[in-house]
Amino acid sequence: MKPLRDTNPKTILLVDDEEGIRFFLEKLLISEGYTIINACNGKKAVEIYKEESTSIDLILMDLNMPVMDGIEAHNELTQFDPEVVIMFMSAYEQEWVNEVQNIHFIRKPMNPAELFNKIDECLNLNAVETG
């Protein structure tokens, strides 16, 4: 089966306060055919999502950020759109993430294959739920 990203380009809102990580992940994801929108913290991510929610398929977001962290952003995003699909990333394991609906988790640093598999999983689950 061909990956979803090959046949239907998807948009990812990439949220991380570390510019180097955003730059690396953006280049990596673009090379796989994704469209990327960047945000440097949770507050900016919420603002962007509220304006562009219909065009964003997945939010890939760091947990620990200044201004507004990933948990606070998650709370605001799910109030605005209960169907939002979020994948948290962090260098620290977060046990509670598995218990929350519509959230996925990947540990940093991640290898590209693992990241793409997790993204495909998130997008395919969302397609099944909404399709």
- Helix count? 5
Written as H for each helix and E for each strand, in order along the chain, the element string is HEHEHEHEEH
Major sheet description: 5 strands, parallel
- Broad CATH class: Alpha Beta
The CATH homologous superfamily corresponds to Response regulator
Characterize the structure shown:
The chain is built from 5 helices and 5 strands. Helix content is 44%, strand content 19%. It is α/β, with parallel strands linked by helices and 131 residues long. The protein has one domain: Response regulator (Rossmann fold).
Explain briefly what this protein structure is.
With 131 residues, this protein is α/β, with parallel strands linked by helices. It has helices at 4-7, 19-31, 42-52, 70-80, 112-130; strands at 11-15, 35-39, 58-62, 86-90, 103-107. It is globular, with a radius of gyration of 13 Å.
Draw up the topology in text:
Layout: H1 4-7, E1 11-15, H2 19-31, E2 35-39, H3 42-52, E3 58-62, H4 70-80, E4 86-90, E5 103-107, H5 112-130
Parallel strand pairs: 1-2, 1-3, 3-4, 4-5
Helix pairs in contact: 3-4
Features:
131 residues; alpha/beta; Rossmann fold; 5-stranded parallel sheet; 5 helices; 5 strands; disordered N terminus
